[in-house]
Design a protein that fits this description.
This protein is mostly helical. Helices cover about 60% and strands about 10% of the residues. It is built from four helices and two strands.
Length: about 100
């Protein structure tokens, strides 16, 4: 279903909006979503549904460190992507201004 950090997971969105079931069976909680699973549980409770975890595992410090590293990596890649886009925008503006000055 895609990364647990991605909020545009089409398969998960279709499962969450499907009204034809009452129990969602999940192998591991972090396969549903990396963060915010309690929000989904509350929503399911309000809808008369519940989540059944097949393999409940207590998180160790190593798991938390791995999760933190994943979040930091995700944010860094987004930040570098935004910086790259900003640089391209500045370059495009400079190019347009240069062409406008040449045309004058």
């Amino acid at each position: 279903m895609g990364s647990g950090l991605n909020d545009a997971r089409s398969e998960l969105l279709s499962v969450l909006t499907d009204k034809s079931y009452t129990v969602l069976v999940v192998e591991h909680e972090d396969r549903l979503t990396r963060f915010g699973v309690n929000y989904i549980k509350v929503l399911f409770n309000e809808l008369g549904k519940w989540i059944e975890l097949v393999n409940y595992i207590e998180h160790s410090k190593g798991d938390l460190i791995d999760d933190l590293a994943t979040v930091i990596s995700s944010f860094c890649s987004q930040l570098y992507g935004m910086r790259r886009a900003k640089g391209k925008t500045k370059q495009l503006i400079s190019q347009i201004k240069g062409e406008a000055n040449e045309a004058s």
